[in-house]
Amino acid sequence: MILPLFKLGTLALKTLSKPIASRLKTQAAHHPRFRSLIINLAQTNHKFSTQLQRRIYGHATNVAIRPLDEEKAVQAFTDLLGEVFIFSVGGAAVIFEVQRSSRSEARKEEARKQEFEALRQREDDLARELVLLKQRVDELEYHTRGRGIAGILNLRKNGGNEEKSQTQAAPA
Prior knowledge:
coiled coil
């Protein structure tokens, strides 16, 4: 029951992170001090990605790269910021799920170990009881050896007549 609710909560968190990221992008674009930082970071990112693409495709890398205009730079970096936020929320949810799952597995493993230990203890107890029973059987065999069935049942040679005479003498 808890697992489907947790999965649903994770999905809701991911879904809610998109509007939050959108609002973050809008606020970041309008804040004056943050806007200048965004423009500088966007220009640096643009230069880096353009040079990387040129190297990958085998084009000349010593060419001057035109900077983005301010609006495109702000838009590019706010999009990047929104994607990083969504990715971070998704990554945090995955990490949380993995940790929760590993804790659950650790609890299950501990329960298995305890169950195994209980079974081993029960086996040891049964083995001790078996040894005691074997000793009692050996003792009984020792005491009854050579006495036959009459010795086992404690019967006298007169076939139990002695018992009958004792019971008859008592009522008189």
